[in-house]
Write a structure and sequence with these properties.
Blueprint: E1 5-12, E2 15-21, E3 24-29, H1 33-38, E4 45-51, H2 59-70, E5 74-76, H3 83-99, H4 116-137, E6 143-147, H5 154-161, E7 166-170, H6 178-181, H7 187-194, E8 199-202, H8 205-219, E9 222-223, E10 227-230, E11 233-239, H9 246-253, H10 256-268, E12 273-280, H11 287-300, E13 308-315, H12 322-342, E14 350-353, H13 359-368, E15 371-374, H14 384-391, E16 398-402, H15 407-411, E17 416-418, H16 423-435, H17 438-454, H18 457-473, E18 484-485, H19 488-497, E19 501-505, H20 533-542, E20 546-551, H21 556-563, E21 569-572, E22 577-580, E23 586-587, H22 597-610, E24 616-619, E25 623-627, H23 633-649, E26 657-661, E27 665-670, H24 675-689, E28 699-704, H25 712-716, H26 740-743, E29 751-756, E30 765-767, H27 770-785
Parallel strand pairs: 1-4, 1-6, 4-5, 6-7, 7-8, 8-11, 12-13, 12-15, 13-14, 15-16, 16-17, 18-30, 19-20, 19-28, 20-21, 28-29, 29-30
Antiparallel strand pairs: 2-3, 9-10, 10-11, 21-22, 22-23, 24-25, 25-27, 26-27
Helix pairs in contact: 3-4, 4-5, 7-8, 9-14, 10-13, 11-12, 11-16, 13-14, 19-27, 20-27, 22-23
């Protein structure tokens, strides 16, 4: 069976090349979370495209390197003269600090040739080079998976070349808040390019939410938590927490060579408790904060001096950037100070290594570690935490984990979460971890071990690929259309010639005064009928040829207050409650109730359930409840707070739901339906109360300032949809199927769907404001009285 081909594109290849002769090369495995994660992609024939870690300028060297890398499934990208300003410049001097909340750095002052623009030009040129390599090796049907901020322009180049190409983009770092991202000079170009991808992925809901908000704020794109629409192109956004390949670490930890390393290290450390740090030497990893917290711990715990060792493995990265030399010097200074204060002739409290170590040695250290200390100031995920959990031996260690690492949401239940900026808090956590009982250590380990085992890199890759396949195999999501300005003369003329008219009005923003602030979602503002419409609406309602419906999200009392004296149909809470002026309110539960929000809410609840031991969620037809009464109370409350933020920013941001927070629960339940589904029941009630109806509805005017989810009411009456003889929408409303063909018979020229104040809509026409609605109703009444 031929495996599908996957082209993985990232800044660096999973190997680093070293030239040993004119045509000879050797390779070493590169460190880093991305390499660890993508080792699990075994179901694809994977080709990895990236920079080999070395500049090669001669043709002989390039050819030899390409041949050698091909045997490893790798394809080199030669960046040559653009590499410095691209990688050390734009990527690591501009994008990296902004994405990690360090702000936009000042331009170089000592070299006029190095500017924001020159670095961005190098970035664009490098992305073009990546594109050329992908184009050279692309075969029809290949999937292209672009990774990280180094290739944000690549999706656009790929789609311009072949719009049918399947393209995904995943960000392995945090995505900053819109206020921080706004400071990037090339902010719009990068967002537009990423949005040309079919699927955009992030580690956490926070990162995805920031990206969606940035697109809305900067590009003016329309968006939900899952879809961003920009320039009539819909892009899916999803969350995929990355994992590791746990079996690789578990099996390696059992090797005899690793066991020997464990014995040796224990002997070398002289029985001292081991606190381990494994980080890139990077400004966002919080290594200085770690040292300051450890110093605080030694100050306040004299009995532990000489009994505990902090071993920090600081893997060098980005050596060409001055800021990283500063952080290196700062770490060395702190180590010297602390060792000088608390060390002795025979031992020092800190061992700092400016290098990486062999994989077997790393697994041995993980296995004997008493405390893994992660103090990241900002981090995409931090897979070191998962690696530590996978390698634990009989005597379990404790994970002290920064709440600013993406792993904080995944592994927080089995860790001690800390704020790395709070030196006292980290110091106390070190003490708590070292003194924790074996039973509690085992309990916390089992929580995290189960998560690491089940959320592998293979699962992460499968989830992303399955979602990408789903997105690209389905028809393109509807993105609305550009409406025309309403031809009021035709509206009035067609109205006067029709025999059975249906007028449908929204309430807020349609029959109320214009909303200057455009706060369309809040129906608690300005909920009074425009005074000049009271008598005009009565005139329309008194015409036996005209049926008027007010369809609103507002509750019954608001509609009663404004329309109680009018002979019309009222639909409160989007049709959940219906009544005619002459009757009582009745409750309706439409068959087609819009429950689109449920799947999104279930995904959020599932996400938090997996990360909150003892919690669970339950789903009914119209509600979802997350319960944490059997979880740790403090952690459960913290998770509930995070959950509420994700819910409101995500799957229910535009949904008609209520969120109720109980003592140990969070519930989301429906409060309304879409206006389109409500119309089915309204028409059913109209037919039931007018059994002698002989003339079908031949004219429909539908005007509203509706939310996107409610715009199905505009398409409900489109001529091609009004042939209900085969599938009546009135079933369940008490309407016989044979009636449906006589209820609605609207020709195209007699149907007017009108949106208020928007030009991106499913409606065919638009009006600027509710003042224009007043003008139109006046014309209808004038024509009627003429």
């Amino acid at each position: 069976m031929v495996r599908p081909r996957l082209l993985v594109v990232s800044m660096a290849l999973p190997v680093t090349a070293n030239r040993t002769g004119e045509e000879a090369w050797s390779f070493t495995m590169s460190p880093g979370g991305l390499v660890s994660a993508l080792l699990g992609l075994k179901e694809f024939e994977t080709k990895w495209i990236g920079w080999p870690g070395v500049d090669v300028y001669d043709a002989v060297g390039k050819k030899a390197l390409s041949i050698a890398l091909a045997e490893k499934g790798c394809i080199p990208v030669f960046l040559e003269e653009v590499c410095d300003q691209y990688y050390n410049g734009y990527c690591n001097n501009i994008l990296w600090p902004i994405f990690h909340y360090l702000g936009t750095p000042p331009e170089y002052r000592n070299d006029a040739t190095i500017t924001y623009q020159s670095q961005y030009d190098a970035y664009k040129k490098a992305n073009r080079i990546f594109f050329d390599v992908v184009k050279e090796h692309y075969q029809e049907g290949d999937v292209v998976w672009c990774h990280d901020y180094h290739v944000m322009l690549l999706p656009q180049y790929l789609k311009e070349y072949n719009n049918k190409m399947k393209v995904g983009w995943f960000l392995h770092t945090p995505f900053p808040s819109p206020d921080m991202y706004k400071t990037l000079p090339s902010r719009s170009e990068l967002l537009r390019s990423v949005l040309t991808a079919d699927l955009v992925g992030f580690h956490t809901y926070d990162f995805a939410r920031h990206f969606v908000n940035a697109c809305m704020c900067i590009l003016g794109a329309e968006a939900t938590s899952e879809v961003i629409v920009n320039q009539d192109k819909a892009t899916r956004v999803a969350v995929f927490p990355i994992g590791i390949e746990p079996e690789r670490f578990i099996n390696t930890s059992k090797l005899s060579e690793v066991t020997e390393y464990m014995k040796k290290f224990k002997s070398d450390f002289g029985g001292r408790k081991l606190i381990l740090g494994v980080d890139r030497l990077d400004t966002i990893k919080g290594i200085p904060h770690k040292y300051q917290a450890f110093e605080k711990f030694l100050e306040e715990n004299e009995d532990m001096r000489g009994k505990v060792l902090l071993l920090q493995i600081a893997v060098p990265t980005r050596n060409g950037i001055g800021e990283y030399q500063k952080i290196k010097d700062q770490c060395h200074g702190l180590v010297g100070r602390i060792n000088g204060r608390f060390g002795s002739i025979s031992s020092v409290p800190i061992i700092h290594l400016d290098c990486s170590i062999h994989f077997h040695q790393l697994c041995a250290l993980y296995a004997i570690t008493d405390v893994l200390l992660v103090t990241s100031l900002r981090d995409g995920m931090n897979l070191v935490s998962s690696e530590f959990v996978a390698c634990q031996n009989a005597e379990k260690g404790v994970l002290v984990l920064s709440e600013f690492a993406g792993a904080g949401q995944s592994l927080g239940a089995g860790a001690l979460l800390v704020n790395p900026w709070n030196i006292k808090e980290v110091s106390n956590a070190i003490g708590e971890a070292l003194r924790m009982s074996p039973e509690e250590k085992e309990r916390k380990h089992q929580i995290n071990f189960q998560y690491v085992k089940t959320h592998s890199t293979q699962q992460w890759a499968d989830d992303f690929m399955n979602k990408l396949n789903e997105v690209t195999s389905k028809p393109e999501l509807g993105t609305g259309k550009v409406p025309y300005e309403l031809p009021q003369h035709d509206v009035v003329q067609r109205y006067s010639k029709s025999e059975n008219r249906l007028l449908i009005f929204g309430f807020y923003g349609t029959l109320t005064k214009p909303n200057k602030s455009q706060e369309r979602r809040d129906e608690g503002i300005n909920l009074e009928l425009q005074p000049q419409l009271k008598e005009r609406l009565k005139t329309l309602c008194s015409d036996p040829k005209t049926t008027v419906v007010v369809l609103s999200r507002s509750d019954k009392s608001i509609l009663d207050q404004n329309f109680g004296e009018h002979d019309m149909w009222l639909a409160a809470e989007n049709g959940m409650f219906l009544r005619h002026a002459a009757g009582e309110w009745v409750t309706k539960m439409p068959e087609n109730m819009n429950l689109e929000w449920i799947d999104g809410v279930k995904q959020v609840f599932k996400y938090f359930t997996e990360r909150t031991p003892g919690s669970y969620f339950q789903t009914s037809e119209t509600s979802v409840v997350w319960n944490y009464q059997y979880a740790d109370a403090e952690f459960g409350r913290a998770q509930a707070r995070d959950m509420l933020q994700h819910l409101w920013a995500g799957p229910i941001s535009n949904a008609s739901v209520d969120v109720v927070q109980g003592r140990y629960s969070v519930e989301v339940h429906t409060v309304g339906v879409t206006k389109g589904s409500a119309m089915e029941h309204i028409l059913g009630e109209i037919v039931l109360q007018n059994t002698s109806i002989t003339t079908p509805i031949d004219y429909v005017l539908c005007i509203g300032n509706f939310l996107g989810k409610d715009e199905d009411v505009y398409t409900f009456f489109e001529p091609e949809l009004t042939d209900k003889t085969k599938s009546s929408p009135y079933h369940g409303s008490g309407c016989p199927k044979k009636v449906s063909s006589t209820v609605v018979d609207v020709k195209e020229e007699n149907y007017f769907s009108v949106a208020i104040g928007t030009t991106h809509t499913k409606a065919s026409y638009f009006l600027d404001s509710s003042d224009d609605v007043v003008e139109l109703i006046n014309k209808l009444c004038t024509d009627e009285n003429a």
